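Final report, closing paragraph on structural work. Over the funding period we assembled a curated collection of sequence-structure pairs, and we close with a single example.
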Amino acid sequence: MTMKTLFNVSGKVAVVSGGSSGIGAMMARGLLENGAKVYITARKAERLMAMAEELSEFGDCIAIPSDMSSVEGIEALVAEISTRESKIDILINNAGSNWSAPIEDFPEKGWDKVMDINIKSIFFATQKFLPLLKAAGNADEPARIINIASINGIRNPGMPTYAYTASKSGVINLTEHLATDLASYSINVNAIAPGFFPSNMTKQIVENDEMTKFTISQIPRGRMGVPEDIAGTAIFLCSRASSWLTGQTIVLDGGMISTA
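Its predicted structure, as stored:
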C-alpha cells in the first residue's frame, strides 16, 4: 500500500440497498467507476433493472430485487448473493422511506413503514450479511458497512416527518453501537448524514423553484449536493484511507446544520 492507492476500491464487491435511484445510484456509480463490482437492490424491479442497465456502462453492476423492510426479504437477498460471492467487502445500507403527516393524524402504518425500512433493515441486513463481511475483512483492510442517516436525525427538520427523524437518529446511534461490536471481526461501521440532494424524497422541493431557492439559501456552500459529493465520501469510507475510522457519522450538507 502506497499513498497513491489510499482511495483504491478496485476489485472490491459491494452491495447497495436502495440502489435504483437517488444517492444510492450515485454511490453505486462512484464505486463502479473506480473498479468495484456492485450489486444494487430495491423493491421495484422494473426501475431497479433499468438503473442496473444504465450503471453497467461504468462497470460490473448486478440488480437483485428485494424487499428490505422484512427479514425474509433480506434473507432472500443474502441467499442469492451467497450463490455468487464468497465474501462482500462493502455493505451500504441506503434503502429509505419517509412519511409526512400532522402529529394529530400521523398513522401507525406510516410509522411502521418508515421504521421497518429505515432502521430495522439496517440491523438485520448487517446481521444476515455478517458471514460474508467477516470473510472479507482483515486487520489491515477491514470490510465496510456504511449506513445512510440524515441531517434530520440530528436536528428538527421543521416538517412533520416524525418517524423519519426518529429513525435517522436511531441510525446514528446504531452505527456507533455496531462499530464497537464488529471491530473485532475487522468490520468498520460508519454513517453518512446527507443534507439536500436531489432524490425521490426531496422531489417536492426540487420540482418547486421557490422551495429550492429557499432551501439553498440555508446552505452556506450555496448549492445542493451533487453525485460527486456523496460518491466521494462513500469511496473514502470504503478505501484504505479510512481503515482506522469507525463508529462515526460524517455530516455531508454543505454546512447547513452548522448555521442552526
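Strands lie at 13-17, 37-41, 61-63, 90-93, 143-148, 187-194, 249-252. The helical segments are 22-33, 45-55, 71-82, 108-136, 162-182, 203-206, 209-217, 227-238. We thank the funder for supporting this effort.
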